[in-house]
Specification:
The chain is elongated. It is an all-alpha fold and about 210 residues long.
């Protein structure tokens, strides 16, 4: 990875995107022509072209991070709105741009993970939020409800959506398949209700 990508272009982080892009295009053309020369000069052109492309990729990523951080501005309400709109990638991008990862940050990271059905990861983030701010009722209540869902011995959140045939194959020999289906239905209905309740109440932001 290029350690100082802006220096590869001969510019600084304060340069505008237009200046950076123009310089990148200029050097790309220069090195692209040089790489076809004979001998060491051609090898040097190829090396510089590769270094340039790596630098440009790093610069674009850095610009995106800075833009995301500027849009975020410390307002978790904006992330909450993105999650409600189902824009999980945008919400995650804003979270990734934050360097000061407070208890509230972990709470909203838990929210994004929960919406992606990553329950174990969501629980871990809630645990960190509670550890950092043990007096926060919102975090503790959310964690208690998450433990209730994940800790249910009759359900396995990771296997939700398995087809009926797989479920039947897991039943003990001799068990009435109709009874088994009824138990599965009851269990899934209970879990669905539990998850819906969590989804509605677990991750609600406090004003």
């Amino acid at each position: 990875m290029v350690k100082e990508p802006y220096k590869v272009l001969g510019l600084s982080e304060d340069s505008s995107f237009e200046e950076l892009k123009a310089r990148y295009e200029e050097l790309k053309k220069q090195y692209g022509e040089q790489r076809f020369l004979a001998g060491e000069e051609g090898n040097e052109g190829a090396r510089k072209l590769m270094e340039l492309e790596e630098a440009w990729t790093a610069i674009q990523a850095d610009i995106e991070r800075r833009n995301a951080k500027e849009r975020f501005g410390g307002d978790y309400g904006h992330i909450d709105e993105l999650v409600k709109q189902g824009k999980y990638d945008e919400a995650q991008s804003l979270l990734d741009s934050v360097s000061d990862r407070t208890a509230e940050w972990h709470y909203f990271q838990a929210l994004v993970f929960y919406k992606r059905d990553w329950l174990t990861e969501s629980k871990q983030q809630l645990e960190m939020a509670v550890e950092m701010d043990p007096r926060n009722t919102k975090y503790k209540t959310a964690l208690d409800k998450m433990n209730m869902v994940i800790g249910n011995p009759n359900t396995n959140a990771q296997n939700l959506g398995n087809n009926q045939q797989t479920q039947q194959q897991q039943q003990p020999y001799g068990q009435d398949p109709n009874a088994a289906m009824g138990m599965n239905c009851l269990s899934n209905c209970c879990l669905a209700y539990c998850l819906t309740d969590c989804c509605c109440n677990l991750m609600q932001c406090c004003g």
